[in-house]
């Protein structure tokens, strides 16, 4: 899901998924009920939306398989750590930034 359900409408309209590519139908079935205070209506709209999304979305993970074979072959994870060597000026600049960020962070913690 994105920021709100209305953002799904443009994708559904682009894909021409009937009947929800019509704004009035989409709004009636999803948008308005999800914004209402009526819990049963919200639940019904969410169930409908989840059913629609299950029907149109293809969800695959790294472990998904097709014909018993992984659909994605990834190399082994490698980690490389590179340490930067700062010049005197770069180190002073970095320390000033770090100090300023730490002060700002501490202010947020106190509030």
Structural description of this entry:
The protein has 111 residues and is mainly alpha-helical. It is 57% helix and 4% strand. The chain contains four helices and two strands. It has a two-stranded antiparallel sheet. A hairpin with a 2-residue loop joins strand 1 and strand 2 (69-70). It starts with 5 loop residues before the first helix and ends with a helix. The model has no long low-confidence stretch (mean pLDDT 90).
Structural class: mainly alpha
Distance between the termini: 32 Å
**Number of discrete helical segments:** 4
How many E strands? Answer: 2
Low-confidence region ranges: none
Could you tell me the mean pLDDT?
A: 90
Which band does the percent of strand residues land in?
Answer: under 5%
Rg (C-alpha, Å): 25 Å
The ordered string of helix (H) and strand (E) elements is HHHEEH
Report helical residue fraction. 55-70%
Spatial strand order of the main sheet: 1-2
Label the overall shape: flat
Largest sheet: 2 strands, antiparallel
List the helices and strands and how they pair.
Elements: H1 6-14, H2 23-35, H3 39-56, E1 65-66, E2 69-70, H4 88-110
Antiparallel strand pairs: 1-2
Helix pairs in contact: 2-3
Please summarize what this structure is.
The chain has 111 residues and is mainly α. The chain is 57% helix and 4% strand. Helix 2 crosses helix 3.
